[in-house]
Amino acid sequence: MNFSKVASAGVIALAGLAYACGGSSDTNSEEATSTPAAAPAKEMSFDEMYKDNPDYVSGLALVKESDCPSCHMVERKIVGPAYKDVAAKYESTDENIETLAKRVVNGSVGEWGEIPMPAHPGLSEDDAKIMVKYVLMLKK
Ligand code: HEC
Description:
Elements: H1 3-6, H2 9-22, H3 25-28, H4 46-49, H5 54-65, H6 83-89, H7 94-106, H8 125-136
Helix pairs in contact: 5-8, 7-8
């Protein structure tokens, strides 16, 4: 579905990186109490929704410690797909978690376009599964 964009993917990736510098507050806040939109009935952030969910909390912590945020954001595609788009594409089943964890560890290309995700050889598959579980929770 991203075929028309493949040709300009390099440009998009660069633009995304530029945005990423200033725009990561929604994924990185330690305590998510300070969402910029202060309207009372505004949509809850994922951090608020899942603050008591151990899978979410440990997955988020692992993702933050790793290099994932340099290519992924929750709400917006940068180099890699937005986590919320990944969550929309895959149901959170054991099978999908395992498949995606293997792709994170071994690298992946062709699922979202021609930009590859590098392998993460230092990452255990168990940790990758916790990260993927977190990613697949990012749907409303
Ligand atoms: C250098 C950039 C980069 C880094 C770092 C990176 N990713 Fe990715 N990621 C990508 C790209 C590009 C894709 C799309 C690959 C494809 O089309 O198959 C992707 C795809 C994914 C997918 C979806 C795979 C699929 O089969 O649909 C998941 C889940 C994911 N990344 C999680 C992570 C996690 C977790 C980390 C940190 C450990 C991480 N990524 C680090 C660039 C990156």
